[in-house]
Amino acid sequence: MILMQHQDLPSDYFPMVIQFIVALGFIVTTMVATHLLGPKRKSKIKLESFECGIESQGNARIPFSIKYFLVAILFVLFDVEVIFMYPWAVNFKELSWNGFYEMLVFMGLLLVGFLYVLKKGILKWEK
Amino acid sequence: MSDSTVQVAEAPPGVEGAGFFATSLDSLVGLARANSLWPLPFATSCCGIEFMSTMASHYDIGRFGAERLSFSARQADVLMVMGTIAKKMAPVLRQVYEQMAEPRWVLSVGACASSGGIFDTYSVLQGIDHIIPVDVYVPGCPPRPEQIIDGVLNIQKLVGEESLRRRNSPEYKQLLASYGIE
Description:
The complex is a heterodimer of chains A (127) and B (182).
Chain A: H1 14-37, H2 44-47, H3 66-90, H4 92-120
Helix pairs in contact in A: 3-4
Chain B: E1 15-17, E2 20-22, H1 25-34, E3 39-43, H2 46-55, E4 78-82, H3 90-98, E5 105-109, H4 110-115, E6 136-138, H5 145-161, H6 170-178
Parallel strand pairs in B: 3-4, 4-5, 5-6
Antiparallel strand pairs in B: 1-2
Helix pairs in contact in B: 1-5, 2-5
């Protein structure tokens, strides 16, 4: 009995290369064809950003206070903290004191962070 | 449940043989476009309520391939203007029309959009065809959903029969120029 020995040759992967070329070629051809064939109109009004027909005022890329970002990130942080507490509360009895201490450590770490935030004055909006 | 039957769109005239079917690109593109219209609803008053009914399950405009509303002008094919267009709203409507991608069609639903309707006053635009070209008018105050569907079907007929060269033709350019649209 002859044992068929299977060998992976680099040439075995050639169909994949062809498939890749066909896939890429299809995308490129379609995009070029639609750009050439489709009717289009490139007036100034057409190319403006679409604001439901209302004229756009100014630029979207204006500088605004970093506080928005910090407050949003802090919200997400403490929001997630509360979410973590739900499964802990559900399994409170099974986790017993061990789980309680673990939660204390977790809350303590975040509390230190919270004190740091307070100390830095990030929540003082007017500053 | 109801014994509904799926009706397939009729094939355009062409040459048929064993295993092939040849037709003009115009009618093929027209067939595809007409049966997959994406409407952009511009509903300002009670005709808009009739439009909601047209979209909903009872009348179901999805039966005609137009259930996918496009709230961006960029992807829409048909601008459906439904309701009273005040003169202050006119530039907004015009901007929306101008920002639509070609090819584009306009369906004017109801007496107000078509002619100002009962609002023969200083503040109301006396028909949207004063500011943008309209393809199909639907009469009524407000029109019933059946009438709106009839309007959509008429748009489909226009779309299906439109030549691919129409948007580049001097007539079309002249039409847009008469509205002052670049």
